[in-house]
Amino acid sequence: MRSVGVEEELLLVDSESGEAQALSHAVLARAARDSNGEDDAFESELHRQQLEFATSPHKDMEKLAAEIVQWREQAARHAETLGAAIAALATSPLPVSPTVGTGDRYQWLEEQFGLTTQEQLTCGCHVHVYVESDDEGVAVLDRIRPWLSVLLALSANSPFWQGKDSGYSSYRSRVWGRWPSAGPVDIFGSPVAYHEQIDAMVATGALRDDGMIYFDARLSAAHPTVEVRVADVCLEPSMTVLLAMLVRGLVETAARQWRAGEPPAAVPVTLLRLAGWRAGRSGLDDQLVSPLLMRPVPALTAVESLFEHVRPALEDAGDYDEARSLLSRVLREGNGARIQREILARTGSLRDVVTECVRRTARGV
């Protein structure tokens, strides 16, 4: 059984207006004071309107779910003392002027990348899954490539940008793609080739260090994990758990294929980019690019093909029934993007969208 950990980026918003607020330093100080400096789950992010937390690794998905709820609730409590709230939104529905953090790294990014850095107020979800070695990890990266766009479509939770409907289900993915190191990658074939490519990228001088390797999925530099970074932060905790189940299933399935001598699908990066664009555009509400055929199919077909692909791994991990239930719910009720648009259609107010999403963030429905 592989362990799984999750990193989530959350939006800090004003409790009354719903507008994003640059309060991360104050929230972090409050969290440190309340825990006597012993709680290091929370971290700052690129913009001061964001707050990040990371869970411990878990093999039991119930424990992972409980920790996600725990940190979301604690973040909400710390923010509340400052007249703010947290929202698991991948972009701010309301207009915002993002404030870049004060650290040396963030200042370097702003100097080097200008408007790209200033506009990167986006919140993602990163799923870490244990791998035994770099050999296994790179083999996994090579084999999960075609499936990552479906994870993006499922998690899509950013339809609004600067007070307007972007026309996308995940506009975060379009903004994030402005980084020169972001997106899908070629097949590496070996750890040596993987690390040589990263070294070559850093050597161009365009990147500060290997922490700026923003691939859709990569080997973690800090943990023995594959880190899948393609998803929007999910509106409700249960959706994050579903994402973690599917990612663990993908990693285990890919590792089994590698051990069985099955080669990775030779899908070119050009097609993976188009599949990612379509997933960001459509979410679950239109066609997606089939990971198997690289042709347009209904979103339901693409999602079901992913589920069947990882089904043996889900069954072996004891995740199948819960994953099936959670997936049925998101297909029936919609992902975060659809929910946000339905709230706007019902209320006519982006402020009400934020208010309802704040309510759903800690415990869902």
Automatic annotation (TrEMBL):
What is the catalytic activity of this protein?
L-cysteine + L-glutamate + ATP = gamma-L-glutamyl-L-cysteine + ADP + phosphate + H(+)
Coiled-coil regions listed in the entry: none
Q: Which domain of life is it from?
A: Bacteria
Nucleotide-binding among keywords: yes
Cite the entry's keywords alphabetically.
Answer: ATP-binding, Ligase, Nucleotide-binding
User: What single Pfam family name could you report for this chain, choosing any that match?
Assistant: GCS2
Q: Which SUPFAM superfamilies match?
A: Glutamine synthetase/guanido kinase
EC number(s) reported in the record: 6.3.2.2
Give the GO molecular function terms: ligase activity
Identify the InterPro entries for this entry.
GCL_type2/YbdK_subfam, GCS2, Gln_synth/guanido_kin_cat_dom, YbdK
What protein family is recorded?
Belongs to the glutamate--cysteine ligase type 2 family. YbdK subfamily.
Q: What is this protein called?
A: Putative glutamate--cysteine ligase 2
